[in-house]
Predict the 3D structure of the following.
Amino acid sequence: MEILKLIDNWLRGAMTTWFTGHVPLIFVDILAWIVATVVILLFVSLLALILIYLERKVAAYIQGRIGPERVGPWGLLQTVMDALKLLEKEDIVPAAADHLLHTVAPVAFFMISVLGYLVIPWEETVTIAKFVDLNVGLLYLLAISSLAVIGVLMGGWGSNNKWSLLGAMRGAAQMISYEVPMLLALICVVLQAGSLSLGVIVDQQKAMGLLTWNLWHPWLWLPLIIYLVCATAEVNRVPFDIPAAESELVAGFHTEYSGMKFAFFFLAEYANLFMVGMLFATLFLGGWASPFGYPDPLHIPGVLWLLFKAMLVVIFMMWVSWTLPRLRVDQLMSLAWKLLIPASFLSLVVVSIVMLYR
Amino acid sequence: MRQRPDHNPLHLLGLICEGIWSLLVGLYITGLNFVRPGVCERYPRRDGRPDYQPQPGYRGDFALIGDPERPGGLRCIACLQCANVCPDKCIHIVPTGAGKERHPAQFLIDAGLCQYCWMCVEICPVAAITMTPDYETSTDKPTRLIRDLEHLQARGRDLPEVLRVETEGCAAEAE
């Protein structure tokens, strides 16, 4: 993300020389924010394209198929063509739908999913949010991720369709239920680090590379598993894809969406997925820090390490998705309330005791 | 009130272990399949290897087997049995000549109607009609799916020897 800093510096310099005395400085700030926003939106869109391609390939290989391989080299352009196809499609709004809600929902869902990217430390002391580390980053992230329910509910309610509404209600119930154990599991990591800042959490893991990752603390293993399960549920992936259960609800809350609106939901889904991967990498796998010690002996930028680790986590989640069947609604709820929440309380107590006597 | 089994903590622990174990087994199986080569046949081929050959017994495009000693150069005696037995009525024959000289002047098969049931091949008394393993028959116009005499004759000329023998065996069995 050095490049972001560079662009920002250049813009500020250029703007102040061009417009000295003509415009207030706030406009320069606003322009810099717009540029940063465009960069991150582009990044998320490109990432989603890559992830969709990856998902299709992983699914194909697991099922003994080949996957996309005709459009472009190794089928790399398949998702690009799909996106173009979606752009061309007619934008259908059901006659009885709530027009405003139906239109706003995909945008809201997408925006909320992108907001999370602001606080991830890409490199030492660099996040998108004004290039400094937010000291309550984790809290902010949890707040943002629970906002995603609003997009789902808006879409489901605004479509005026029974499948959409059922999917949205299920989605809301599921996301709110899994929020609780996820939060409790992440508090364990906060206890370990003594800070809510993601930058500080990474700083504490970077010293000896691979060896000082949070992954190696036995008392964090239970929270790790709980977080992974809850995060899978949070981003509505199989085996927790109950809000969009194809065999039951057509496509759940985005049944009535077509064209670019549907693409926004799709994009946001994969943006969320990668967000989970990055957060997992940041909390347990040392984030941007190199696994070979600090400073990095290979001189690879921290961003690449972060993306690499996040990609591994995402591939693992895809692997699990294409292995397990979908849970029933009651199984989903009993898993969250009867198993994960007691387990997360237990791990909270264990980590507290460990921190007290360490 | 009777306790439900999943309220028993020991039973619950057993369920959790069972679940984790089944997840690991599942991951092992899918992981194994991930690294195995796929079973798909690419069509059309682009990697230079020969085209896909269907399994024996595949019913593709039709053919009329030739016979140079007969008028019209075909075995077919235009007896119309195939046209009558066809459940889809997709065969149309215009016979010409009388007695031993009888042969088709035109022979039309509408591949769009055909269900490839093999009944015409079974009923043919002289083993004249058969189906080839050729699967590349799709076109963008329905009228192009109607096979005429010329086409059927050409297909008959390229017919593999194995299929000719098989068709004759089939005819002999029917008799």
Q: What stands out?
A: The longest helix of chain B spans residues 9-35.
